[in-house]
Amino acid sequence: MKKYILTILFAALILSGCGTVSSETKENASEEAVSEETMDASAEAETPAEPEEPEEPEDTVEPFDITLAFAGDINFDDNWSVMAYYHSIGDDLEAVIDPDYIKLMNDADLFWINNEFTYSYRGAPMPDKYYTFRSSPENVEIMKTLGADIVGLANNHCFDYGEESFYDTLETLKNAGIPYVGAGMNIDEAKAPVYLEAQGVKIAYVAASRAEKYRLTPPATEDSPGILRCYDNEIFIESIKEAAENADYVIALPHWGTEDSTVLEEAQLTGAKEYIDAGADAVIGAHTHWIQGMDEYKGKPIAYSLGNFWFNDESLETMLYELHLKGEKVTTPEGEVTVNIESVEPEIIPGMQENCVTTMAEGAEKTRILEYIDSISP
């Protein structure tokens, strides 16, 4: 019996010893595994991560949709028919110029109109000139109400009351914050392109006149005031080329043609092409009082004459002429800018000047005027 008990106890001790060895082995194995994991983690921590490639900076692309608006001859002479009527009804501008036109002029990114008179109280009418126009300087507020961003002075009436009156005209427009083009204190100012900006796009205006049979309005010289003439196109073309080198879009504004006629002069037909060949992107004329035809050359729009806008008491077709420029401006990270003009769409908004009032045409009248313009176009 004792021998049996001892045998059992011996067996128990052997089993107990085996269990103890197994537990220590597990603990040692576990410690070794933790140690290896710690070393692996430490090794990973010590190994620097590869730097990410920096993203290349991208160009900035800004789309634009620009409206450039233009209107023909306007006259603020206080003693002339349109202003006499305007004063007689209490200086109500919307009663003499259609509010829809005024809104379009103000909504345009840039609006140009032909300033066919002088602002001054001084001076005397130019001798041997049948029509002379002088406006009170205060009337420049009308120009501001119309939304004019720039006016044309390359015409045959800006010098009607002589040099003093001409100086007053320039000063009045400067004080009103309205740039002028085509005239100045000397030839450098008269021939200089005027640069304006619309939605980040640089627009250049250049203007000259060849409107007088008897050349009474003086040309600007190195040391005397006047207009830029284009009976000879040499200087005008130089101005256009200069503008083309410094602007994204160039508008040539010649004052030309035969008054009260839709028949184009040869100088208009050849001149428009020369201006475009020199770098003009559009040619928009004035002076004839009557609307003249539309044309294009090398895909560039030509409006030979916009006619009167609000100038006298005659019944005449008129228009607001618009150019819609669409495209995008691309700026590189280095700051280099490229302007891509993808399309230019001309638009005629026809109307009538009648009984000293200018109204926008609608319906059948609008169709009639558009068909009339088409009929007189080359």
State the CATH topology. Purple Acid Phosphatase, chain A, domain 2
Largest sheet geometry: 8 strands, mixed
**Uncertain stretches of 5 or more adjacent residues:** 1-34
Elements, N to C (H/E):
HEHHEEEHEHEEHEEEHEHEEEEEEEH
The proportion of residues forming helix, as a percent range, comes to: 25-40%
Give a description of the structure.
The chain is an alpha/beta fold and 378 residues long. The protein has a single domain (60-375), classed as Metallo-dependent phosphatases (Purple Acid Phosphatase, chain A, domain 2, 4-Layer Sandwich). The chain contains nine helices and 18 strands. The strands form four sheets. Strands 1, 2, 5, 6, 15, 16, 17 and 18 form an eight-stranded mixed beta sheet that branches. A six-stranded mixed beta sheet has the order 8-9-11-12-14-13, with helices on one face. It starts with a helix and ends with a helix. The model is unreliable at 1-34 (pLDDT under 50).
Summarize the SSE layout with pairings.
Layout: H1 2-46, E1 60-74, H2 81-88, H3 99-107, E2 110-115, E3 118-119, E4 134-135, H4 140-145, E5 150-152, H5 162-176, E6 180-181, E7 183-184, H6 187-191, E8 194-198, E9 201-209, E10 226-227, H7 234-246, E11 249-255, H8 266-278, E12 282-284, E13 294-297, E14 300-303, E15 308-310, E16 316-331, E17 337-354, E18 357-360, H9 363-375
Parallel strand pairs: 1-2, 1-15, 2-5, 3-4, 5-6, 9-11, 11-12, 12-14
Antiparallel strand pairs: 1-16, 7-10, 8-9, 13-14, 16-17, 17-18
